[in-house]
Amino acid sequence: MDPGCRLSVFPGSRVSDERDTALLQPGQTVCWRAHAPHVAVLVDGAAYFEALTRALLRATRSVFIIGWDIDTRVRLARGFSGTYPEQLGAFLDVLVRRQRRLHVRILSWDYSFVYLFEREPLPHLKFDAKTHRRVHFELDGDHPPFAAHHQKIVVIDDALAFSGGLDLCDHRWDTVRHEAHDPERVTIHGQPYAPFHDAQVLCDGEAARALSNIARERWRSATGERVPILARGAHSWPAEVPADLEEVEVGLSRSGAAHHDRPEIREVETLYVDSIAAARRSIYIESQYFTSRRIADALVSRLGEHDPPEVVVISPRVGDGWIESQTVGAAHAQTVARLQVADHRGRLRIACAVVPGGDSGESLPVFIHAKICIIDDRLLRVGSANLTNRSMGVDTECDVSVEAVAGDLRTEHAIARVRARLLAEHLGLSVDAAAESVAHQGLIRTIDQHALEARALRVVSYEDPGEPPSPTAMAFADPERPVSPSSVLHTLASDELQQRARSAYLRLAALLAVLVGVVVVWRLTPLAQLLDVDPITAWARSWRARPGSPLFAILVFALAAQFLVPVNLLIIVVVLVYGPLLGSALAITGACSAAAVAYSLGGFLGGDLVRRLAGPRVIALKRGLASSGFLPVLVVRVLPVAPAQVVSMVAGAWRYRFRYFILATLVGTLPGVFALSILGDRLRALVQQPSPETILLLVGFALLMVALLLWLRSFLHRRGKRERERWL
């Protein structure tokens, strides 16, 4: 086990012999199994933010806040915090000033550029500048490439702990009513947003200390600082928060990719597979996405049985944004369609939640962000892990589970009551009515009876799921294993891009052959009399002598490239005019400037318009550039799969990291500029003083360049193939 999981069971935990056959197995499905005097399931942001605020007000020594996104401007509980500010950053500042021994440690994912416009700018500086020095903020980048830190944990004095799907950021607050025009459900800028559903667990006792250990280990991994756990002290459960379960054991399951000295962790996935196999009557799931291959396999197997359990999956109707709908959204549709084919007994319902839409008369969709699974009345789990491939073993996740052992009717009743609360919220029923309906006629009939009402769970069907997502895009959006540099090269050198590159090589060879042929015919036949080289040479000298001509040449280069004048042709012209040395420097500067202009233009126009302007080639490029790192752009620059400006516009439209983009453009342009400088210099020599030796040298150079490009393509393909075989 990793350093954050040295113990399986806390001292004093109530472990019975019946746990030998339990689902919560330390070292397999959970890392910790610990006793909790109280557990509360906080449904939706209003309940969580209020409970968190009340718990923070009692903090005296230590607070850990671990999240995917944390925003200083988000409002906590509204209207009751007294003399404390409502915004998180200001609230924590006042809190530590009044509690002189209190330290607050905040760890947020060091996010991808893709989320730049969804997040608070410069959070590190804002926490440092606006809060007390005992509020410590750090960004967590200690994970493999393209992985994310996705746990959402808050631990207070190592005695109370929250964990689940809710981040302390914008677009999270809502009530269980999900009213169409709730004046409190607005962004930090005052703009209303759609109804939002999520859940968080609050626990105390040894379970809270277990979550504290996970939070501390993540902090140590990201920052290098070891923070000792506090001695046990008196810390009462907040009386304002009713407990759903009492005197139970809590299991903590994690996911995480192997990284440095840390082993791979797949406890979340293992518990899902085992619990689905153990279900007798019903499987109730809420998840933002459903793309996991192994979880889908487990459900397909159960649905294929003679008497399968009822399976209910509640998720959003569509992905959040265009990129998600084209990647994990498309994979979600494919997964759902596969489950529907396997459902031969009508025991499956894939549904989205809707609520009354107010004045419009239409129902509003509720965005399902929760990650909940309830198996029969036996297992309740709430966590951060979506049913995606990356949540099973790439991103860092944490799920909290409670299992009713055989004969524990009190815990079984409590788990059933939590499920009834969720159904009551979605169907507009009382909790008692929802519980009674499920007890008498099951989950599916309860849902179907209310399917046409304004507040309901509407069945979603994907009989025609559309085109499957690109394997290239999914290798970055939803990988089953971390994406290595070799696999990046293989992905970017996929068959589709290789075919485009191969065609480009042939076109380049044909162009060079035609160019050489024209020059030879021109110089060795009477056609040479039609054009005198001397005036052109004189014009080039006079142009070079003008003040500011290099700057003007860069400007013309950058503008001409926007009209899809081939960059390689512009490089040759610049070299012909300014010579190989100065011409190369100006060509590199012009190429980078042209790329930056096209990148900015692509960002301004947006993905849809760029796709319409550039045509089908955008799809292949978007798949190839599915990551925002240095290697993808470099490889696409080296492989001539599309005009340089199209590549730049696509990169800008899909918001790839600019520093990686411009650095890869520079490095990828250097070999071409060098080669074309030699080519341009030889062309000038051929025009001015043709000879068989010069012609042979030029033809040989052109063939060498084509051979090098073909070798590079083959090398990338072999490297990627070996990496994929190693994974499989």
What's the short version?
It contains 24 helices and 19 strands.
CATH architecture of the largest domain: 2-Layer Sandwich
Task: Determine the CATH topology of the largest domain.
Answer: Endonuclease, Chain A
Helical percent range?
40-55%
> What do we call the CATH homologous superfamily of the largest domain?
Endonuclease Chain A
The structural domain count equals 2
Please report which band the strand proportion falls in: under 5%, 5-15%, 15-25%, 25-35%, 35-45% or over 45%. Answer: 5-15%
Mean pLDDT: 78
Q: Sheet bearing the most strands, described?
A: 17 strands, mixed
Q: List the uncertain runs.
A: 1-20, 492-498, 527-534, 611-628, 719-728
End-to-end gap: 24 Å
Name the shape in a single word. Answer: globular
CATH top level class name of the largest domain: Alpha Beta
Number of separate strands:
19
- Report the radius of gyration as a whole number of Å: 31 Å
Q: Structural class, judged by helices and strands?
A: alpha+beta
Assembly type of the chains comes to: single chain
> Total number of helical segments?
24
